[in-house]
Amino acid sequence: MSSKSSKITSPYFARNDSTERPTPSSDDLIDHSTPNSFNDENFILPNPPEITEFQHRVYTHLLLIPSGRITSYAILASQLHSSPRAVGGALRRNPYAPMVPCHRVIAANGFVGGFMGDWQKAPSGVNQIRKLELLEGEGVEFTREGKLIEREGVWFDGPWEQRKD
């Protein structure tokens, strides 16, 4: 991500081309306990861990999904000329969650889908429940079984152009 004064200003991730994988310190980790700060202009991105080019593309696209909207693994995969499973794998490894909002991606059938490794049809894992809480905090509604309650404008399928700040 590009930044001014260590603040997010556009969806661009710096690449770490070193062959050594850095060991993150506790200072490098994102605090997952503050769910309502996703659009916080003062959020300071920690030093980026090593990510693949594909992960870079996925995370950049995630930043284009507005709060209160969702997309599916299939729609995102189509934009990236990839597969839903590959997208899911990148999302599962998202080191920037929830600031890079992987929680805004759900299954095409409307079920909440996985989150940070949890994957069941009904939300039963701690991480899946967290995903529901994040989405509901943005105004997206689900049944008790974890199925999206459809409403006008909730699905996001573009535009996928980079935002101009």
TrEMBL record:
Reaction(s) the record says it catalyses: a 4-O-methyl-thymidine in DNA + L-cysteinyl-[protein] = a thymidine in DNA + S-methyl-L-cysteinyl-[protein]; a 6-O-methyl-2'-deoxyguanosine in DNA + L-cysteinyl-[protein] = S-methyl-L-cysteinyl-[protein] + a 2'-deoxyguanosine in DNA
Region (Disordered): 1-40
GO process annotations (BP): DNA repair; methylation
Recorded GO MF terms: methylated-DNA-[protein]-cysteine S-methyltransferase activity
Keywords assigned by UniProt, alphabetized: DNA damage, DNA repair, Methyltransferase, Transferase
UniProt EC number: 2.1.1.63
Major enzyme class: transferase
Record Gene3D superfamilies: Winged helix-like DNA-binding domain superfamily/Winged helix DNA-binding domain
SUPFAM superfamilies assigned: Methylated DNA-protein cysteine methyltransferase, C-terminal domain (SSF46767)
Pfam families: DNA_binding_1 (PF01035)
All copies of domain Methylated-DNA-[protein]-cysteine S-methyltransferase DNA binding, residue ranges: 53-140
Membership in a protein family: Belongs to the MGMT family.
Name recorded for this polypeptide: Methylated-DNA--protein-cysteine methyltransferase
